[in-house]
Amino acid sequence: MSLLPIFWEWAEFALRWLHVITAISWIGSSFYFIALDLGLHRDRKLDTGADGEEWQVHGGGFYNIQKYLVAPSRMPEDLIWFKWESYATWLSGFALMAVVYYLGAELYLIDPNVLEMSPAVAVVVSIVSLSIGWILYDLLCKSKFGDDNTRLMILLYVILVAMAWGYTQVFSGRAAFLHLGAFTATVMSANVFFIIIPNQKIVVADLKAGRTPDPKYGKIAKQRSTHNNYLTLPVLFMMLSNHYPLAFASKYNWIIAALIFLMGVTIRHFFNTMHARKGLLWWTWGATVALFLAVMWLSTAGIYMQDDSDEEAALGPMAQKFAAAEGFEDVHDIVVTNCSMCHAKEPYWEGMASPPKGIRLETTQEVATLAKEIWLQAGVTHAMPPAGSYMYLDDESRTAIRKWYETGLEG
Questions:
Q1: What's the confidence (pLDDT) of residue 311?
Q2: Where are its TM segments located (predicted)?
Q3: What is the pLDDT of residues 70-108, one digit of tens each?
Q4: Burial 384-401 (b: 16+ CB within 10 A, else e)
């Protein structure tokens, strides 16, 4: 058995786990500090000169938290910087994308029915798009247009919708949603790395030198933090969407993405208003439900149907190797017989609206392209077919799958 594919599977798992851990740390601290800032009591005259304070209870203890607009009169020696959560989240996320989407470009990144291109070109388009997004956003924030934060956020939404449409014209639906999440996450993490932390360092340096810091640095940092706050929930949706083809495998997928960003705004607006003690805006949940119902309708109204009229022309170099490998015909029959009940354009399994994860296993192209997934799910492990189904793969069939895949690797 080839150990290299096993290594990469575990590497992907480890990176995904690391990404989830760091993301929880970043999102948790981000949401906490936004809620804290909004909930501060600013109507109290504090001897310390702080802008506001709040009392909190957690873990059996009481905390008296105060916020200074610039800094206290004496700079504390122990100052904790909340930055590595953001950096580690982006770095682990990019590494995960490289392992899954860049090294597996033929399978996950490129869809010949959307746009034919080489893996190298697809990777370059991916990296360039992530970089351009931050540059454009940063220039807008620093321009006169960015002085009005509401106007700026509306334009930012328009840009995100445009990127959603653009990505769906270049990549597979699954990769388009992932890239839209990565595009947004890059803006968020770059806000921390290039704006928020440097501005805070300027303030600290001024205080240590005995100068009075300019409050504008705090104002700029707060603007970027607010943007991050409203963008977080849509990013989480985009990152989870690859498990749910009804979200991305639709000709209306870019509109679905646009509505998801609006849902992020309505949900966060409810909590931000509540934390600011301005009441409970229950209408935001009504709007959220309405938006989600619209997403559900669009997902079924525009189910993407791949054109299989010329399936052989869509075979990439790796898929061609597996299609030509000894044992392919037998494996194709095994897969179609045991897997296409669910993994089909229109699944036969009762109650299943779309193939799991958008994976179809009916044609030569599909079986050859998904060789590694078939080998892992049904050859090396017994993950597929599911134990609860009446389908069953005997050891002979699983051995045939393993031999075919390893032959294709050597070919």
A1: 46
A2: 17-36, 87-105, 117-140, 152-170, 176-197, 229-246, 252-271, 283-305
A3: 767 777 778 899 999 999 999 999 999 999 999 999 989
A4: bbeeeeeeebeeebbebb
Query: Cα separation of 380 and 319, whole Å?
Result: 19
* Local structure of 218: helix, strand or coil: helix
- Return d(Cα 330, Cα 211) in angstroms, integer: 77
What pLDDT score was predicted for residue 302? Answer: 61
Of 167, 165, 160, 162, give the one whose Cα is nearest residue 111. 167
CB-based burial label for 326 (10 Å; 0-12, 13-18, 19+): exposed
Beta-strand relationship, 61-67 and 52-58: antiparallel
How many Å apart are CA 411 and CA 394, to the nearest integer?
Answer: 26
Contact residues for 107 (Cβ-Cβ < 8 A; gap 6+): 369, 370, 372, 373
**Strand, helix or coil at 303?**
strand
Q: Please enumerate, as own/partner, the contacts of 98-105 that have beta carbons within 8 Å and a separation of 24 or more.
A: 99/8, 99/11, 99/12, 99/15, 100/12, 101/126, 101/175, 101/178, 102/126, 103/8, 104/372
Half-sphere exposure of 168 (CA within 13 A, CB side): 21
Tell me if 322 sits within 8 A of 368, measured CB to CB. yes
Contacts of 163 (CB under 8 A, 6+ apart): 129, 133, 180, 183
pLDDT of residue 388: 64
> Would you tell me how many other CB atoms lie within 10 Å of the CB of residue 267?
19
Q: What is the C-alpha to C-alpha distance for residues 258 and 261, in angstroms, rounded to an integer? A: 5
Judge residue 172's burial from the number of C-beta atoms within 10 Å of its C-beta, 0-12 exposed, 13-18 middle, 19 or more buried.
buried
Distance between CA 101 and CA 123 in Å, rounded?
8
CA 41 to the chain's CA centroid: 35
CA–CA separation, 347 vs 341, rounded Å?
Answer: 6
Rounded distance between C-alpha atoms, residue 127 and residue 112, angstroms? 20
Q: Give the per-residue pLDDT at 310.
A: 46
What residue has token string 């077919």? 385
Give the Cα separation of 366 and 345 in Å (integer): 12
Dihedral sign for Cα 106, 110, 112, 113, please: positive
CA distance 30 to 229: 7
pTM score? 0.88
The number of residues in the chain equals 411
Nearest to 20 by CA among 110, 119, 92: 92
Q: For the chain, which residues score pLDDT lower than 70? A: 1-2, 71, 302-314, 388-390
